[in-house]
Each structure stands twice: as structure tokens, then as C-alpha cells.
Design brief:
alpha/beta, 12 helices, five-stranded mixed beta sheet, seven-stranded mixed beta sheet, 360 residues, globular
Length: 360
């Protein structure tokens, strides 16, 4: 479906919308299931939102209708809320004194549930989806006659992966194709620091491309425990605060396909944030988040994170268990009320873990 076709179909549902700012009529590079969830969301919003407000969100989507647009995943979270608990408000302003922002202007949170629960949306995929991004960028730098395979331990931290590979693709491509790494027409470069290897194979000799990677959920959690401190300036200080982490089978195929691995990975990460980070008083969040006020410790910030919610937005999974996970912080200064947990999350078949009897 193209952006014009989407817009025309939406007009059939809601009536005239006026002009929408799109560069040109482009193909929407999303699965049909996600396109339909977005269409249904806009149709519902049209019943209660101003045309001007609706067009703002519509423009955010249509100007870049791909999975590289973080706004798409934000909208898919709104779509989930719309279907399961429509008592929410998108885009609310948070004053500086209500969060950890250094700026006098505060910031605009992604929304509020009920009257007091503030939430933000952070597209999820620590390290894992970036491997596909790296593969794509490297493939563009090497001759077409070669397959590229990337092998290594996917537990590598997101920060380390970005620094060593994603931020220096040109240098990495040059290292891979260095003559020192040539072997009978193929190339093999191994990073001695991380153990990751990058192999080029002639397509004519290797009709199938294969990569082997390892993954340890607990090592991954340990390596990435500070990841959400990159957004700590947004944590609200006087009300419950939730981060929604949407993902799908294109950016986290391994976790989408295995409920046990997903649950283990998400729980291990949250347990470190809720139990370990809430005790770290000798580091401040401005080490990770340049927009944060100085003097705010990691422990202070971690206690403001009331819960994490991980949503598989590959398609509409309403009523199906194993595609949405909520982890509540037992050390939160402002916990998510139990009645809200029941009404919003348990009612929507979300698997919930509050670390009861496991807070040590």
C-alpha cells in the first residue's frame, strides 16, 4: 500500500482531512498487519481529536512510513492502548520540576494513562536489531560478488556495538577487505577485542549465506543495565512513570519467536535496573543523559522508574498470552497502583512480574 492509498482509505473512514505533508506517494514499508492497526488507530482518533491534531500524527507517519521511523512504533503503542484501555492522553507536557531535565522548558512525554501514570515509548532492540543495520550498511560498502556474514556474541553491550562497529562502518569495511585478511579469494576479519568475526564469501562458490551467533540473556542484561539511563532526564519524580518498549519480528525476530527467551531476557534486564541500579549512589545520570540535571544519582533515577512494558507489535495479539510483558519495580518511589495493573494490563493478557519474593 502507498501513502496516498492509505490516506484515501482513511478518508473513506473519517471524511475530509485536508492536505497532508508528504514528499511524494511512496510505498509503505510495513507489514499489512501493522498498516491496518495504524489505520484503525487514526479512525478512532478522528472521533475525538481535532483535525489539526490528527494530521500532526498522520504526517509523522506518512513522511517516513518505514520501520526506521521511531514514530511508527510510538503510534503502534497508542494503537495497543486504544484497543485495550482507551483512557489515555497522548503527548502531555512535563514541567522541569516534575522530571530530571536540565532545560527550563521540561519536555513532552508520550502520554498519560488514567489521571496520574505518565509514560514514554522507546523502540526496543538493544544491540540485536543493530546487527541487521550493520549488515545492510556494510553490504553496501563491499563488492556485489560477496556474501557478508557476521558472527559473534549478541550479548555485547549496545554502547560497545555502536562505538566499535555502527559508528565507523567505512573503517570496518576497509579492515575486512584488507589484503592481510584475504584467503583464497575470500576475506575473514576477526576483532580480537570482542571476538566478533566478519567474513566475505564469493557468491559463486557459496550459493547460501550462513551466520552463527551466540546469545546469553544474563550477559546481555549485565552489559546493558545502564541503557535506559540514556533517557533518565525524562523520568517523572512525583507520579508513576512507565516506559513502553515496542518491538516486532523484524527488529527482534529471536525474541518474537521464543516466549521463554523473551521473558528471561526482559526479566534479567529489569531485575538489574530495579535491584542493582537503585543502589548505585556514586554515579550520576548526566554521565549517560546529557539533557539531565547534574547531581542526580543513578539510584534516585532508577527508583522513579515504576515499570517497564515490552510489547510485540508485529500484529494484533489481543487476547493472546506471551506477546506483552510488564515488569513492576518493587523499589519504585511511586509504584503503579494494583487496580491500574489489573484494569490496564492483566485485562489485556499481559504477563506481569512484580518480583515478589525476589527483591534482594
Amino acid at each position: 500500500m502507498t501513502t496516498k492509498e492509505f490516506y484515501e482509505k482513511l478518508k473513506e473512514d473519517v471524511g475530509e482531512l485536508g492536505e497532508v505533508k508528504t514528499e511524494k506517494d511512496t510505498e509503505i514499508q510495513l507489514p499489512d498487519e501493522q498498516i491496518e492497526m495504524l489505520r484503525a488507530l487514526f479512525a478512532e482518533w478522528a472521533k475525538r481529536m481535532s483535525i489539526q491534531g490528527l494530521k500532526k500524527y498522520l504526517n509523522d507517519f506518512l513522511k517516513k512510513p518505514t520501520q526506521e521511523n521511531g514514530k511508527v512504533y510510538e503510534l503502534l503503542v497508542y494503537a495497543w492502548l486504544e484497543r485495550n484501555f482507551p483512557c489515555y492522553v497522548p503527548q502531555i507536557h512535563i514541567e522541569r520540576e516534575k522530571c530530571f531535565k536540565a532545560s527550563e522548558n521540561g519536555y513532552d512525554a508520550d502520554g498519560r494513562i488514567e489521571e496520574t501514570i505518565v509514560f514514554d515509548v522507546k523502540q526496543f532492540g538493544i544491540t540485536l536489531p543493530h546487527i541487521a543495520t550493520l549488515q545492510k550498511k556494510l553490504q553496501e560498502k563491499i563488492p556485489e560478488e560477496y556474501w557478508l556474514s557476521i558472527e559473534g556474541d549478541e550479548s555485547l553491550s549496545n554502547a560497545e556495538f555502536q562505538k566499535r562497529y555502527l559508528n565507523c562502518v567505512d573503517d570496518l569495511a576497509a579492515k575486512i577487505m584488507n589484503e592481510e585478511n584475504s584467503l583464497l579469494g575470500d576475506y575473514l576479519y576477526q576483532d580480537k577485542v570482542t571476538g566478533w568475526s566478519f567474513r566475505l564469501r564469493k557468491k559463486e562458490k557459496n550459493p547460501v549465506n550462513v551466520s552463527i551467533r551466540t546469545y546469553d540473556a544474563y550477559q546481555w542484561a549485565e552489559n546493558n543495565e545502564f541503557y535506559f539511563m540514556n533517557h533518565a532526564s525524562q523520568f517523572c519524580v512525583d507520579v508513576p512513570y512507565i516506559i513502553f518498549c515496542p518491538y516486532d519480528k523484524d527488529i527482534l525476530a529471536m525474541l518474537c519467536g521464543n516466549r521463554e527467551i523473551a521473558m528471561t531476557s526482559f526479566r534479567a534486564l529489569c531485575r538489574r535496573m530495579f535491584m542493582r541500579l537503585t543502589r548505585i549512589e556514586d554515579h550520576t545520570i548526566d554521565q549517560w543523559d546529557g539533557k539531565a540535571r547534574s547531581g542526580i544519582t543513578v539510584a534516585q533515577a532508577a527508583r522513579k522508574l515504576s515499570a517497564m512494558v515490552f510489547l510485540d507489535v508485529s500484529e494484533n495479539f489481543d487476547g493472546k498470552v506471551g506477546h506483552a510483558f510488564m515488569f513492576k519495580n518493587p523499589n519504585a518511589d511511586h509504584p503503579v497502583p494494583e487496580h491500574s495493573t489489573d484494569a490496564i494490563f492483566r485485562a489485556a493478557s499481559v504477563l506481569i512480574d512484580d518480583f515478589r519474593c525476589d527483591n534482594y
